[in-house]
Amino acid sequence: MVVDDNEDMCQIISDVLKAEGHMVGIACDGESALNELRTKTYDLMILDYKLFDMNGLEVLEKLQGTTPALCTIMISAYGSEPVRARAQELEVYDFFDKPFDVNVLVKTVKKALMQETKNQKPEGREQRADINLYSVSPEGDLTSEYLKRSGSPLPLKKAE
Questions:
Q1: Per residue in 60-71, pLDDT tens?
Q2: Phi/psi of residue 139, each to 5°?
Q3: Residues 90, 57: contact at Cβ < 8 Å?
Q4: Domain limits at 111?
């Protein structure tokens, strides 16, 4: 999910992430983001600090304890040390100052999602088998040729 009061920024980040194969939701203010997160589950949120109705830290504070852990990357043109320190306390994965290199952001998103996948435990979800298809190899390459069984990668042969 991308949350930024600048609709153009939302669209640019969304388009880049969609081109990388991600499904992306957009919100242009804090309340819309909170409403969206109450009804849908996201693996990651890119959150601007300065929003029309509240700041990004307030969004994170309101989310505490209400949704499953949501990996968050914060972006801002106002990244002062107190803002960064509070973001770190709220376990923000990374903090980007605007303007930023979108390619670096994409790499950070991939890294964060890989880490989240490794750390994720199927809490409250029905697990049907101990084999799960992943689109990221252990080396971090995007691929559909890897299965994991009990946490160990199983490379597939062409016939499989």
A1: 999 988 767 789
A2: -85, -5
A3: yes
A4: 2-118
